[in-house]
Design brief:
There is one protein chain. By secondary structure, the protein is of the alpha/beta class. It is 49% helix and 14% strand. The chain has 13 helices and eleven strands. The two termini are 28 Å apart. The structure holds pseudouridine-5'-monophosphate (PSU) and manganese (II) ion (MN). The site of pseudouridine-5'-monophosphate has 19 residues, from helix 2, helix 8 and helix 12.
Length: 299
């Protein structure tokens, strides 16, 4: 594994680290806003007293922390490989490049000794999963790898009630940050209650440590609602989602391509607004993740 000079300096000075994923850069947001957002996320982590470690695989090496030139190059790669748990070892063996999903970022963060990770939305159970069996590897990873993941819930391109059920089955704590409801990415609420709520970062940090002390595998999912001023209602975004799902079915999109396809279609249909909401929520998550990472070092 290669660590950036900034990450190495943080380790030496005992400054907390926050991992950031890179599939959001290559497959989640369009150029050039993807690069701008990745840099803003890093800045937000720094401003909150932690150091960012953006994770990606470059020339067969896992990187924790990307130099700006590497980030710029990745953000402009059109055909970057999207790496999940299954792909990590094969791409390393081939000496290849790729961006890491939530699942792969959790694995690399843990290898790098990083406990906290900020993203936008996690993968989950797709609508129609009862026939397609399409359930993101992110959910199993949360059950296996001890990293606290901060997200804004999951996008309504997924089946949110089934996603919550699958997390419960796997024993993943879903912790509402100052909310009792599961947030739905662009919307702060979904109408779906979640059983756990925490209102302060030290408690989330203590729960992370206690999970390990109890010998329980896996991480925690902290769900942080998009700020009210930036949200888009489900009602407003819903027609674009329905169309995107119908198009994916018509075009026979399967496997890894499903999530990027749906994200791209919804983004195109809603134009600027969903992009601005997306950027606002990832920055909001970066801020909270840094706060939790700082709290982890203090307990
Ligand atoms: N959800 C989003 N934006 C994203 C992703 C999910 O709102 O960019 C990306 C994340 O990297 C996530 C991955 O881990 O998609 C899930 O892909 P799949 O559904 O194929 O597991
Ligand atoms: Mn899938």
């Amino acid at each position: 594994m290669a660590k950036s000079s900034e990450v190495q300096a943080a380790e030496a000075a005992n400054i907390p680290l926050v991992a950031l994923e890179s599939t959001i850069i290559t497959h989640g947001l369009p150029w050039p806003r993807n690069l701008e957002t990745a840099l803003l996320m890093e800045e937000t982590v720094r401003a909150a007293g932690a150091v960012p470690a953006t994770i990606a695989v470059l020339e067969g090496v896992i990187h924790a922390g990307l130099e700006k030139s590497a980030l710029e190059k990745l953000a402009q790669t059109r055909d970057a490989a999207k790496l999940s748990r299954a792909d990590l070892a094969p791409v390393l063996a081939a000496g290849g490049d790729g961006s890491t999903t939530v699942a792969a970022t959790m694995i690399c963060a843990h290898l790098a000794g990083i406990d906290v990770f900020a993203t936008g939305g996690i993968g989950g159970v797709h609508r129609g999963a009862e026939t397609s069996f399409d359930i993101s590897a992110d959910l199993d990873e949360l059950a296996k790898t001890p990293v606290t993941v901060v997200c804004a819930g999951a996008k309504a391109i997924l089946d949110l009630p089934k996603t919550l059920e699958a997390l419960e089955t796997r024993g993943v704590p879903v912790i509402g940050w100052r909310t009792d409801e599961f947030p739905a990415f662009w919307s702060a609420t979904s109408g779906l209650p979640i059983p756990l709520r925490m209102d302060d970062a030290p408690r989330i940090a203590r729960a992370h440590k206690l999970r390990a002390a109890l010998g329980l595998e896996g991480g925690q999912l902290v769900v942080n609602p998009i700020p009210a001023v930036d949200e888009i209602s489900y009602h407003e975004i819903s027609p674009a989602i329905e169309r995107a799902i119908a198009e994916a079915a018509e075009q026979g999109i399967t496997g890894k391509d499903v999530t990027p396809f749906l994200l791209e279609r919804v983004l195109a249909a809603t134009e600027g607004r969903s992009l601005e909401a997306n950027i606002a929520l990832v920055l909001n998550n970066a801020r909270l993740a840094a706060e939790i990472a700082v709290a982890m070092l203090e307990i």
